[in-house]
Automatic annotation (TrEMBL):
Coiled-coil regions listed: none
UniProt KW Manganese keyword: yes
A Pfam family this chain is assigned to: Ribul_P_3_epim
KW Zinc (keyword) present: yes
Binding site for substrate: 9, 67, 143-146, 176-178, 198-199
Described function: Catalyzes the reversible epimerization of D-ribulose 5-phosphate to D-xylulose 5-phosphate.
Highest taxon listed in the record's lineage: Bacteria
UniProt catalytic activity: D-ribulose 5-phosphate = D-xylulose 5-phosphate
Catalytic residues as annotated in Swiss-Prot or TrEMBL: 36, 176
GO cellular component, one term: cytoplasm
Protein name: Ribulose-phosphate 3-epimerase
Organism encoding this protein: Zobellia amurskyensis
PROSITE patterns: RIBUL_P_3_EPIMER_2
Cofactor remark: Binds 1 divalent metal cation per subunit.
Amino acid sequence: MSKTKIAPSLLAADFGNLQRDIEMVNKSDADWHHIDIMDGVFVPNISYGMPVVKTIAEHATKPLDVHLMIVDPDRYIKTFAELGATHLTVHYEACTHLHRTIQAIKAEGMKAGVALNPHTNVNLLKNVIKDIDIALIMSVNPGFGGQSFIENTYEKVYNLKELIKESDASTLIEVDGGVNSKNAKALIKAGADILVAGSFIFKTEDPIKTIQELKKSTDRWSIFEL
Ligand code: DX5
Ligand code: ZN
């Protein structure tokens, strides 16, 4: 069984000390840097744009997992590849020609992800599941950090895992929003491979320790108790 990946969401970092917080993630047991891009149209918030991503890329030593919460993401696929994104996730709800978008992401040498809003049924991924590297289940409505975890996420993760197995696909399941030590184990049990956490990591006194504990608890659990 592969180990759980932890992807701290830099949206919860202290932007006045961005380099410090990126270096904290570099030093920690985290696996990826999660980067949330919001356009104020697809979601009711604007996060940060290309100059900030460029700065993150200059300091980060781990893969850059970019989550686009924007309309018409096709316009920016090349730009994010040039900025150093290794994983690029678009929203199912924002893509009219999702299959084409996925191919365009891969053509730029990045891993392709598709995110689903809380109301979107996982079975809608059936016809592209073998084409995508990551399926990201939103466990809050996208747009803001620090929201409460939506409980029906466990069932969605479980159903998605079933779909992946039935399809003989190797897609990884990422869960994003309100993740903490209380729901992490059940998410892994349901089938999650990657946990994104923002507030839970950055709002603690010792984020390195929080990451270490989150990682250890899910790994121990996935190896010995599944
Ligand atoms: C929400 C973003 C998340 C967010 C998670 O729209 O996609 O990545 O930063 O933050 P927390 O863990 O605080 O819910
Ligand atoms: Zn995100």
